C-alpha cells in the first residue's frame, strides 16, 4: 500500500493508504485513512478482505496495533467493510463505529470481538486523543445510511463516495485541474447519487465546514480552492439519472 501523510501537527496525523501494487485488476482501488491523536488511532473504512494483509502491514508501520482503539465503517459496502472480520481478530479490543441501520448487515462479515457502536442517523462527535472527529450525515450519497468524517482541526473532510473518480495507476493523489477531472467524475456521480434533496443537504453542511482537503474513498483528493470548486460543480449536477420513463 502506498502511504501519504495528509496532515501532521505534533501527535495528530492523517495518513492515506491506497494503490497497493499487488492489487488484482478486477478489484476497485480504494482510499483508506488512519487518524492518530496522542496514543489513540482510528481506521476509517479499512477495506476489503483482499486488501487486509497489505493494509495491516502498512498501518503497523505508523502505529502499534494496541493504539488502534476504534474503526469506522461509513456503510455496508464490501470494498470498504468486508475485512472487518479479520480486523476483529487483529484488534480484538477495538470498537466499531458504523450506522445503526447496518449493524445486522456488517456483522455478517464475522465480527465476534469488536464492540459495535451504532451511529444515530443525526450523526455524533467522538473525542480521539486531543482532537474531535464528527460523523456527518451523508445519507443516500449513495447509501440510505452513510456518514462522512470531519476533523475541524486538520481541516479534512473524508467524503466517502462523494468526489470519487476512477484513476490510472501512477497518477497523482491530487486533483490538478477540475475541468480535466470532471469527465472522470460525472457519470459516476449521476448514477450513484440518487437524491437531489440529500445532495443539497450535504452541500449545505460541507460548505459550512470550509474544508482544506476533501478526501474521497476512490481516486484523487481535492485541496484548497478546488474543494469549493467541486462543491459548486456537484451542487448543479443532475443526479439519479438511471431512471428512464
UniProtKB/TrEMBL annotation:
Q: Which residues form the Metallo-beta-lactamase domain?
A: 29-218
A Pfam family annotated for this chain is ODP
Fetch the PANTHER family from UniProt. HYDROLASE, METALLO-BETA-LACTAMASE SUPERFAMILY, METALLO-BETA-LACTAMASE DOMAIN-CONTAINING PROTEIN
**Species the sequence originates in:** Thalassolituus maritimus
Record lineage: Bacteria, Pseudomonadati, Pseudomonadota, Gammaproteobacteria, Oceanospirillales
In Swiss-Prot or TrEMBL terms, this protein is called MBL fold metallo-hydrolase
Q: Which domain of life is it from?
A: Bacteria
Amino acid at each position: 500500500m502506498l502511504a501519504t501523510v495528509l496532515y501532521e501537527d505534533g501527535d495528530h496525523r492523517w495518513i492515506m493508504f491506497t494503490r497497493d501494487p499487488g492489487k488484482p485488476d478486477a478489484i476497485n482501488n480504494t482510499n483508506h485513512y488512519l487518524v492518530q491523536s496522542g496514543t489513540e488511532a482510528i481506521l476509517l473504512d479499512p477495506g476489503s478482505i483482499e486488501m487486509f494483509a497489505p493494509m495491516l502491514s502498512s498501518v503497523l508501520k505508523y502505529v502499534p496495533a494496541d493504539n488502534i482503539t476504534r474503526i469506522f465503517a461509513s456503510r455496508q459496502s464490501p470494498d470498504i467493510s468486508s475485512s472487518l472480520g479479520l480486523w476483529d481478530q487483529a484488534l480484538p479490543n477495538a470498537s466499531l463505529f458504523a450506522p445503526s441501520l447496518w449493524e445486522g448487515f456488517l456483522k455478517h462479515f464475522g465480527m465476534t470481538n469488536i464492540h459495535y457502536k451504532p451511529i444515530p442517523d443525526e450523526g455524533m462527535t467522538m473525542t480521539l486523543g486531543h482532537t474531535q472527529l464528527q460523523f456527518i450525515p451523508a445519507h443516500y450519497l449513495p447509501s440510505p445510511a452513510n456518514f462522512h468524517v470531519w476533523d475541524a482541526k486538520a481541516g479534512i473532510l473524508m467524503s466517502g463516495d462523494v468526489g470519487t473518480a476512477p484513476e490510472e495507476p501512477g497518477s497523482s493523489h491530487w486533483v490538478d485541474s477540475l475541468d480535466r477531472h470532471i469527465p472522470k467524475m460525472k457519470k459516476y456521480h449521476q448514477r450513484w447519487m440518487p437524491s437531489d434533496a440529500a445532495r443539497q443537504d450535504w452541500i449545505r453542511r460541507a460548505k459550512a465546514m470550509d474544508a482544506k482537503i476533501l478526501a474521497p474513498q476512490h481516486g484523487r483528493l481535492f485541496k484548497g480552492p478546488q474543494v469549493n470548486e467541486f462543491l459548486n460543480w456537484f451542487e448543479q449536477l443532475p443526479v439519479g439519472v438511471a431512471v428512464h420513463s
